[in-house]
Model the fold of this input.
Amino acid sequence: MTDVERRQDRSPVPQDWTYAPAPESTEIVRLRERYGLYVGGEWLDAKEHFTTIAPRDEAPLAEVGQASEADVHDAVTAAREAFAGWSKLPGSERSKYMFRIARILAERAREFAVLESLNGGKPIKESRDVDVPLAAAHFFYYAGWADKLEYAFPNRTPKPLGVAGQIIPWNFPLLMLAWKIAPALAAGNTVVLKPAETTPLTALLFCDVLRQAELPGGVVNIVTGDGSTGAALVDSDVDKIAFTGSTEVGKAIQRRLAGTDKRLTLELGGKAANIVFDDCALDQAVEGIINGIYFNQGHVCCAGSRLFVQESIYEPLVEKLKQRMTTLRVGDPLDKNTDVGAINSREQLDRIEELVAAGKEEGAEIYQPPCRLPEKGYWFAPTVFTNVAQSYRIAQEEIFGPVLSVLTFRTPDEAVEKANNTPYGLSAGVWTEKGSRILWMAQKMRAGVVWANTFNRFDPTSPFGGYKESGFGREGGLHGLEPYLTFDDSETFGG
Amino acid sequence: MAQAPALPHGFELPLKQRLPRIGSIDQVAVEARAGELAKRSIKKDAKVWALELALRCCDLTTLEGQDTPGKVAALCSKAIRPDPSDPTVPSVAAVCVYPNLIAAAKERLSGSSVKIASVATYFPSGQAPLDVKLRDVEDAVALGADEIDMVIDRGAFLSGRYAKVFDEVVKVKEACGDAHLKVILEVSELGTYDNVRRASLLAMAAGADFIKTSTGKLPGAATLPVQLVMLEAIRDVHDETGRKVGMKPAGGIRTSKNAIQYLVQVHETLGPDWLTPDLYRIGASSLVNDILMQLRKERTGIYQSKDYFTND
Done:
């Protein structure tokens, strides 16, 4: 080594590696100060407005119209008028519009992703990689069915129902919009859609896409508002209601519609079992558990909120789970490195806090990784409860937050019995390297979706829906078309 | 009553506590997780920090039939002083050469912080009798290697003769004396993540100080999911025994961006303790200049052309 080299030979002592903030810019989103209602292809003023905020810091984003009963009536009338033309269009023409919508969504993906995270609180990496691409994929997929309906249902003659009233939740605002609108349009129906009260903005931005795609006015109408707007839509002159949301509201809707000839599909709550056998791929199972419950802050109706662990691997698994939780990055939803974002609303935060308090009181052991939560906005640290009994509220009720309850089982039969012992039945997860056990479990689980060695995985071609109090009717795939169609032969087939 | 057959020698692994369950790896899920971690956005100070760390962790490598003392001398200068125009740029961890070139490296590196690593054990195939391999190791150590990069006997491993693989690692470790032992699994010949995990645990149980992905002599060397599988095995050994084994991906890491992805994985799987050349190395040659280019860009805001960095 020469003297010159000696002066430069060094190994500085490192400090901690803290990732610098990597915020996605919000510049791409241009919000108006005030939004009206999108009816008949035009923006109508609403009489009253309410403010929609960003849950990350409670900053107001825009004023949004509160649709009254009369407004809803106008929207349904516009949809009814548009139905005549839209349902008569050849399927190939309808599909052209839908492909156009899908392409525009894909082109404007970043804009939608940023707005979704801003208004809903979910991490940008999720809205960017999951919500928006999947929403576009749903339009692409159902666009393909629009001119093939008679092949979709061989020997039957499918016809559209008419006007579909659709009410969607705040956890996946744009994706649920796509799940609802895409099959309805493909089948030849027109739509009145009510976005959730706390997350109306991507639906309102979507109206821009509809205009860009030159979709005929009235085919899709968007009315914003609170529960009363939803109730008005349920009572209005629609042919079908499709609702995704809480079981409580779902039951109320079903009661309202009893005795009418309006059709109904409901996608409601869940308390999914994520069942881990001792022959699973352990580290990947831990990843799946994390994804199952902390994806979208646990605001997922099919979240794997009840973890059933075979007792023989209980300790190492829980240890690994806790270790993994310490690496979850909780914070600004718009930071590209954020894993867990903000809770959607004050109301939801209160509910999570109430149930977590109940869990502690009932005797479950709580663990939360050390993390600094922002002062403003709505936040809840990722939480896991161990020592949970099947009878505790946290094992029974849907929390809809980043809270996991861990229970144990000894044999496959016991796992099935405990997992099915719930009023819900939306989804389940099975973790084992044994193929035969996966198939056996899939048959035994009373849940609409059973994931094997994965969780929260969605695809437009795959039907999704519930058993029991998780609702009825399926969305996605061929099955998702059926609730939007009527068949001339329906008497013969009882459909 | 029939008696259970005696366990083959080496089956009772010398970890103080029980070996972590061998278990299995789900290919789809491990690739998905590696893909997620690869999307971390590392910017500004965090990026400079990572680039300097990557440099400090580099094993600057030349393993060619055409290597000469002159070539190695140039490499050693680069190792001590990667960017002569910038005194804040740290030295790399080691140079990695064939045994015949240890002397040349030693001459240039003595007195510096840069270590000498030598491949041994009939690198890269490992297809030679054990005594030849051990002799190879002893020679390399005698010539002054601080670190030995051995290859496992993939032929034995793939035919299920794990005890043979294990015994060889144990003997090589003995032959190493004070030299650090890195055990190359040559993952692209192992074929499955399950095998990567098994080989990782086996090497660690046999005494490896580091486990290393590849010789760099085959395509499809280090990948992010492969490293993740190995890191998880290291974590399991640490959780069970408290012992910290190092990790070295080698082969195919050419860009700063890719190097940072590897570091992020270490950071979020094993934690900050492993972010040091004592426990993490990157086997690379062309990576260094790309890091220098990025570092200079971070400091000056300008990308320089390749001609402004020395090819050694």
User: Anything to note?
Assistant: Chain B touches chain A through 48 residues (CB under 8 Å). DSSP finds twelve helices and eight strands in chain B.
